[in-house]
Specification:
Layout: E1 15-17, E2 22-25, E3 31-32, E4 44-45, E5 48-50
Bound molecules: iron/sulfur cluster.
């Protein structure tokens, strides 16, 4: 499998799962998501992404060895 094919949000260190197919990206701070809902206290959200998406900021999760060093 080539390197591009192995890039999915689901495999990225910045991905946080919401359900089986979707999650949020935490690479950057939340972005303004509009002010159309007056019931909400704030209108900032982390971007929602599919587990199959990816972007140029993709990074593999940090792996810690048994000795505590980063692999
Ligand atoms: S959008 Fe990019 S940085 Fe965010 S989880 Fe997906 S691959 Fe990672």
């Amino acid at each position: 499998m080539n390197e591009i094919a192995e890039r999915h949000c689901e495999l990225c260190r910045y991905f946080v799962a919401v359900d089986a197919l979707n999650g949020t990206c935490h690479r950057f701070p939340p972005v303004f998501a509009g002010d159309s809902s007056p019931r909400e206290n704030h209108h900032w959200r982390f971007p929602q992404v599919s587990i199959h998406a990816w972007c140029g900021e993709f990074q593999r999760p940090v792996q810690i060895s048994s000795s505590g060093t980063t692999i």
